[in-house]
Amino acid sequence: MPGGPEHGKALGMATHELTQSSPRSASALLTTDRTASFVSARVAGVLYLIIVAFGIFAEVVVRARLIVDGDPQATAANIRDSEWLFRMGFGADLIVFLSDVALAIILFFLFRPVSRVVSALAAAFRLTQTAIIGLNLLSMFGALLIVREADYLRVFGQEGSDALALLLLDLHKYGYTLGLTFFGLSTLAIAYLAHRSCVVPRLLAALLGLAGVGYLCDSFAFFLVPGYDGSISPVLLAPALVGELSFALWLLLRGKRLEEQALAAERAS
């Protein structure tokens, strides 16, 4: 009978022979299962939301509130009076950059079946952006040191210290903009992969494409247009906010199909 001891013995022998003859297959399957626990569309969605939320906090709640363009004294006074808020903005940026590294790797695996080369380019551009903006945080922290340390005040004087702090914050702004140039290229690559995936909605892929174009246009305007102060940045970057939030929510709610596609390709290979 099928459930008898002879059947159990035969099944055990067959399983033993299979594992002995193809240990690499068993190892590959185990590796794929481990990859599945990491390459999760939901994890990518959560990371995306973290990046958006903490990025908005650092830029809108902290820097836009404390930094007064063209006024070193007011900016330095704001930082001295709200040092804890300034440091929270620094910490929020750190969380964004750490999340960005993890998200770059996960998106690479999720979109690798669509195009290995373009997926690698998207990850490379995003990681380059993260490295540039991460190192650029030193300028922001340097401004805090100058306005609060008495040694710098004795050397540069009050006005000199305030002016130097604002200069470092301006350098941080342009360094951030330089990093977003690479992020714009990464977003364009993701938009292409999303369009080719046949899983991500075409409208969402188009929004990501507009987001990438907006990042690039805004970044090039800062460096190539004399006197550009970012006055039209909200218009250029509005599609980025809509597109990235929509993509994050899609990954959370519907991204399982993209994940299954990636894992199927992994098993097939």
Outline the low-pLDDT stretches.
1-38
Shape: elongated
**Main pleated sheet:** none
Q: What is the terminal-to-terminal distance?
A: 38 Å
* Percent in helix: over 70%
How much is the average pLDDT? Answer: 84
Number of helices: 10
The count of strands amounts to: 0
Which radius of gyration do the C-alpha atoms yield?
Answer: 25 Å
Strand content: under 5%
Structural class: mainly alpha
Q: What sequence of helices (H) and strands (E) makes up the elements?
A: HHHHHHHHHH
Which assembly state applies to the chains in this document?
Answer: single chain
Describe the structure.
By secondary structure, this protein is mainly alpha-helical. Helix 3 packs antiparallel against helix 9, helix 6 packs antiparallel against helix 7 and helix 8 packs antiparallel against helix 9. The N terminus is likely disordered. It has ten helices and no strands. 87% of the residues lie in helices and 0% in strands. The two termini are 38 Å apart.
